[in-house]
Amino acid sequence: MYAITIPEPGGPEALVWEEVPDPVPGDGEVLVEVVAGAVNRADIMQRQGFYDPPPGASPYPGLECSGRIVALGPGVSGWSVGDEVCALLAGGGYAEKVAVPAGQLLPVPEGLDLKQAAALPEVACTVWSNVFMIAHLRPGETLLVHGGSSGIGTMAIQLGKAVGARVAVTAGTKEKLDFCAELGADVLVNYREQDFVAEVKQATDGAGADVILDNMGAKYLDRNVQTLAVNGRLAIIGMQGGVKGELNIGALLGKRAAISATSLRARPLAEKAAITAAVREHVWPLIVQGHVRPVVDRELPMADAAQAHRVVEASEHIGKVVLVAP
After folding, report:
1. Contact call for residues 279 and 302 (beta carbons, < 8 A)
2. What is the C-alpha to C-alpha distance for residues 123 and 64, in angstroms, rounded to an integer?
3. Helical H runs in 34-149?
4. Which phi and psi angles does 180 have, rounded to 5°?
5. 3-state SS assignment for residue 224
6. For 217-224, which contacts have Cβ atoms below 8 Å and span 24 or more sequence positions?
7. Collapsing DSSP states into helix, strand and coil, what is residue 178?
8. Three-state SS at 13
9. What is the rounded CA–CA span in Å between residue 168 and residue 38?
10. What average pLDDT does range 239-250 have in this prediction?
11. Are the beta carbons of 47 and 9 closer than 8 angstroms?
């Protein structure tokens, strides 16, 4: 098969489309013939040499894909050759085939094609696990989503609204904020021109956000704590703004607030399977009913993954950039 490899870490040009050995499904795995994958910021970090795959995972980038099952490994039940699926991966999505633990498979939601489905697993699992399984967003609460026009952001807006929350977002352009509003966002903050702390406080009569989904890390840590409501929960899922920040423990104590920080890639298989099952139970019906949809900015050939990385690094996209296999 062909896959995107990274012979040496570097810029987008470090991504090479070349022939590699076919993967073989192990115990509890299936082999998926990939129709499409999607780009995540973790892929960019891997390309740069900062985010190696966990032990035993595929060395190729790509944390989600869609396609058709072409073989079953030992011990797999509930799936058949020919099933159309999408999948959460620890790596290997930028390829023509990938071996996937059966617990990380999802059926393609009714009404979507395979290329649309490729944009779902990572964002749905990330948002559901952090905003709902850990931070326990409830109806009537306020959710602040940083990077509202990203793949994660567009999913978080829709799921927040679907459960009856009020959603505030930050984004860097009017075009992106307008799109967030179309998805249902109630409070729109241009982070280049406005202070999100002040804007969220004003929109909530001084109360603040009950849950914050943060992709920035250190740069926003202090201001996120300022923005939290009493009993608020800050869920950190990225570090685009750095890894070391100063935390005011007194402010956190005064608000009886909590901070969590997670990633999906290196979690044990059982945890990823539990998250995938929860997404199938809670998110997939919302997609089938039309309340939630994948947001795809553009599709590019998988061999042009370098161009896809340039688009994402420059934040020129809204939603997901999808890579289509030959």
Report:
1. no
2. 9
3. 41-48, 114-117, 121-127
4. -60, -40
5. helix
6. 217/241, 217/242, 217/243, 217/245, 218/242, 218/243, 218/244, 218/245, 219/245, 220/146, 221/245, 221/246, 221/247, 222/246, 222/247, 222/248, 223/196, 223/197
7. helix
8. helix
9. 26
10. 93
11. yes
Give 117-131 as a DSSP string.
HTTSHHHHHHHIIII
Question: CA-to-CA distance for 134 and 275, rounded, in angstroms?
Answer: 11
What band does 97 get if pLDDT is binned at 50, 70 and 90?
Answer: very high
Encoding tokens for residue 297? Answer: 């900015």
Output the pLDDT for position 310: 98
Give the Cα separation of 77 and 56 in Å (integer): 22
Q: Under a CB-based contact definition with an 8 Å cutoff, are residues 74 and 132 in contact? A: no
**DSSP E strand boundaries for 20-118:** 29-38, 64-72, 84-88, 97-101, 105-107
Q: What is the mean pLDDT of residues 69-87?
A: 98
Which residues does residue 212 pair with via DSSP β-bridges, in sequence order?
Answer: 144, 234
DSSP letters along 27-43, please?
A: TTEEEEEEEEEE--HHH
For residues 229 and 140, is the Cβ–Cβ distance under 8 A?
Answer: no
Element (H, E) at 272: helix 269-282
Residue (of 105, 60, 47) closest to 80 by Cα position: 105
d(CA 192, CA 315): 14
Residue type, 206: G
Q: What is the mean pLDDT of residues 245-249?
A: 93
**Is beta strand 16-19 parallel, antiparallel or unpaired with respect to 2-5?**
antiparallel
C-alpha closest to that of 100 among 63, 126, 129: 63
What would the pLDDT profile of 8-57 be if each residue is shown by its tens digit? Answer: 999 999 999 999 999 999 999 999 999 999 999 999 999 999 999 999 99
Query: DSSP 3-state assignment of 23?
Result: coil
